[in-house]
């Protein structure tokens, strides 16, 4: 194919729009890095054992593709894994569990874990005795962790391989509970010399990687090897991806897209995964230092990676980047599957670089270059961060800062001290936005902790002070946070019987209907997210039945995730009803009914059709909840509750039926049937009064 530099540039520019330019990718990483750094003292405790969790995988690397799952690593801080006996003496704390890696007579890249110093009964129960020595088996470790995590607020917990898939109302993620070693394994030390000889990665990156150690995950070389653990270099891989220049990162994205849209799409049983693609990229960069990683040479770089992948499939050997003796194709890419995959890849290779046109995404960029001889490159302004993109990315913080992260007021104080120190440095407006959004979440969680304390018996003075402090927390959160924070304050006032105050806060929570000029104002007025109410958060009694039903069925915290617009209308209806404004309550009820029936296409006066265009047309951070299956049940349920309160019992029955008809994410069927009985009884009573009259 002619004009390869032109085509390369076109694909590069197109992928910068899809994958993200260097500024956007760096900001995505910065959001996660700053948040995790400020929360570095926060740990999650299960059964008196403290665990640290860290985002990993392609999402952490900076990708926001549809296939970029939320992956996390978690490990117990008191478990200390050492790679040789000389390191055992470094740990003297009686609470530490010291475990020794033994790699002799095992497949490369795998290890046995021998218990040296038992620090907790958990390991003693899980261990297997061999020749008077205790070893930690991977299967019982994973099984115990699944049982432990089932006690959390995740609705569903199951595992596949080393990962435990966990689903909550807000998040679906794969968590690998592993063990952490602060030491670089002996079997990977030749990697350091290889890096020094090739000059990649650079010495500073290699030093950081070695000092960070590694992880061991509970999976063996085969399913029958229960005593084997795989040595994982997830943290090292993340650091290497961070060190890539943007053309290398875009090539990584191009390989991932080609794998998903072409290779795996045409295969009945895909056997290649993105981890193999990442390994290919690392080897190509390290082995060929003459290759120019520039936008005009992107397709050439891709082709080199593709040829190496074909070679590996042909030989049936994919060497691990850190331990080359570990053939990652050994189990997965063999026999007929290997032969079929090689034939498929060789057919692509025979077509040349044009095989990229088989990808719908890449084909568009090729067409742009062919049709438009004068290729319109991206304008320079797009190199800078876009305010809308920043608001989209800030939503990542909500995946890290959760009620599990902020468990008590002492931790809130620690977080605020760290934030105060961070703000004393020279920071950009976007870094300030990260901290501001994070602070609003933490302060709101502090208010919820104080509110839960009100459920305990206290003297009048302590009750008064606790209510005062809780109110102050919600006020502060609403002052610096986005519009949903106003709803939390409104819910607090409503639960306290201050309906006029609650109504004013609810009205302030309406999305901005005028042009927002400053970024800070746009962040506060236009960023919308779901309202999260746990069973312990009894702001008001109208949803207690649903919370109790969820808690009874799932055995969890009775967590309800309510779309912002639904909660906004509910608060308007409840406050208008309490204040005796029947006409306004009916108008808000009609707005909610229209919204649920028609979604974004509905005509809801003053709130949604006059909204500043950023919110729905450009922002894209808030999907249409009424077609979003996980939350449709609670949306229709709330409409039914509001209709019942306003006296429309027949309408309430219809809404409850709609709630039963959609997929139940919140598991509130029992509450819905109870609501239907209540509305039916009220309807019969109203009809009997009518006929008696």
Shape, per Cα inertia axes? globular
| Rg (CA only) | 28 Å
Distance between the termini: 87 Å
Provide the structure class. alpha+beta
Q: Do you know the CATH topology of the domain at 1-42 and 245-384?
A: Poly(a)-polymerase, middle domain
Strand content: 5-15%
H/I helix tally? 28
Can you identify the CATH class of the domain at 1-42 and 245-384?
A: Mainly Alpha
Q: How many beta strands in the DSSP annotation?
A: 15
Low-confidence stretches: 374-383, 600-629
Q: How would you sum up the major sheet?
A: 11 strands, mixed
Overall pLDDT confidence: 86
Name of the CATH architecture of the domain at 1-42 and 245-384:
Orthogonal Bundle
Relevant terms:
693 residues, 11% strand, two-stranded antiparallel ribbon, eleven-stranded mixed beta sheet, alpha+beta, single chain, globular, Poly(a)-polymerase, middle domain
């Amino acid at each position: 194919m002619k004009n390869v530099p032109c085509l390369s540039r076109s694909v590069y520019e197109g992928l910068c729009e899809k994958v993200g330019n260097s500024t956007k990718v760096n900001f995505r990483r910065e959001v996660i890095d700053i948040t995790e750094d400020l929360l570095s003292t926060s740990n999650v405790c299960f059964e008196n054992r403290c665990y640290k969790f860290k985002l990993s995988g392609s999402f952490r690397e900076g990708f926001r593709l549809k296939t970029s799952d939320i992956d996390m690593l978690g490990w117990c801080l008191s478990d200390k894994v050492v790679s040789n006996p000389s390191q055992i003496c470094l740990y003297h704390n009686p609470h530490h569990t010291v475990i020794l890696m033994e790699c002799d007579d095992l497949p490369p890249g795998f290890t046995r874990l021998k218990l040296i110093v038992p620090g907790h009964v958990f390991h003693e129960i899980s261990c297997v005795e061999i020749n008077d020595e205790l070893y930690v088996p991977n299967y019982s470790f994973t099984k115990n962790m699944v049982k432990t995590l089932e006690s959390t607020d995740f609705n569903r917990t199951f595992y596949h391989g080393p990962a435990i898939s966990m689903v909550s109302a807000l998040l679906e993620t794969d968590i690998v509970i592993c063990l952490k070693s602060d030491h670089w394994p002996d079997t990977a030390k030749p990697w350091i010399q290889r890096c020094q000889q090739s000059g990649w990665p650079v010495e500073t990156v290699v030093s950081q990687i070695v000092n960070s150690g590694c992880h061991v995950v509970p999976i063996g070389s085969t399913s029958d090897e229960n005593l084997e653990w795989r040595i994982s270099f997830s943290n090292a891989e993340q650091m290497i991806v961070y060190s890539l220049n943007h053309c290398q990162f875009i090539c990584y994205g191009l390989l991932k897209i080609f794998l998903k849209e072409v290779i795996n799409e045409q295969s009945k049983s895909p056997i290649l995964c993105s981890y193999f693609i990442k390994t290919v990229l690392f080897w190509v960069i390290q082995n060929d230092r003459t290759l120019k990683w520039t936008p005009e040479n992107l397709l050439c770089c891709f082709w080199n990676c593709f040829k190496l992948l074909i070679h590996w499939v042909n030989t049936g050997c994919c060497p691990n980047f850190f331990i080359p003796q570990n053939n990652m194709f050994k189990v997965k890419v063999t026999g007929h599957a290997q032969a079929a995959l090689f034939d498929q890849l060789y057919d692509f290779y025979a077509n040349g670089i044009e095989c990229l046109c088989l990808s719908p995404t890449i084909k568009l960029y090729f067409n742009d270059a062919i049709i438009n001889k004068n290729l319109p490159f991206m304008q320079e302004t797009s190199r800078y961060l876009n305010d809308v993109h920043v608001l989209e990315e800030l939503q990542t913080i909500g995946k890290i800062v959760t009620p599990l992260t902020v468990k008590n007021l002492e931790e809130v104080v620690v977080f605020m001290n760290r934030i105060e120190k961070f703000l004393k440095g020279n920071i950009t407006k976007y870094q300030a936005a990260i901290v501001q959004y994070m602070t609003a979440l933490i302060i709101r969680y502090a208010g919820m902790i104080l509110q839960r304390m009100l459920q305990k018996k206290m003297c009048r003075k302590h009750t008064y002070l606790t209510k005062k402090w809780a109110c102050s927390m919600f006020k502060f959160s609403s002052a610096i946070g986005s519009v949903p924070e106003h709803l939390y304050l409104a819910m607090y006032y409503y639960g306290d019987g201050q309906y006029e105050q609650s109504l004013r806060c609810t009205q302030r929570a309406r999305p901005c209907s005028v042009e927002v000029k400053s970024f800070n104002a746009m962040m506060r007025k236009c960023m919308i997210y779901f309202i999260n109410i746990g069973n312990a958060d009894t702001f008001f009694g109208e949803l207690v039945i649903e919370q109790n039903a969820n808690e009874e069925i799932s055995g969890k915290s009775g967590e309800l995730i309510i779309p912002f617009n639904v909660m906004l209308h509910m608060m308007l209806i409840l406050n208008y009803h309490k204040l005796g404004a029947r006409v306004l309550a009916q108008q808000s009820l009609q707005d909610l009914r229209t919204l649920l029936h028609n979604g974004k296409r509905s005509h809801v006066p003053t709130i949604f059709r006059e909204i500043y265009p950023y919110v729905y047309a450009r922002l894209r951070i808030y999907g249409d909840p009424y077609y979003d299956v996980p939350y449709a049940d609670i949306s229709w349920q709330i409409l039914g509750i509001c209709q019942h309160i306003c006296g429309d019992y027949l309408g309430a029955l219809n809404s409850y039926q709609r709630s039963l008809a959609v997929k139940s994410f919140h598991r509130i069927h029992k509450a819905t049937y109870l609501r239907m009985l209540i509305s039916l009884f009220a309807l019969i009573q109203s009809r009997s009064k009518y006929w008696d009259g």
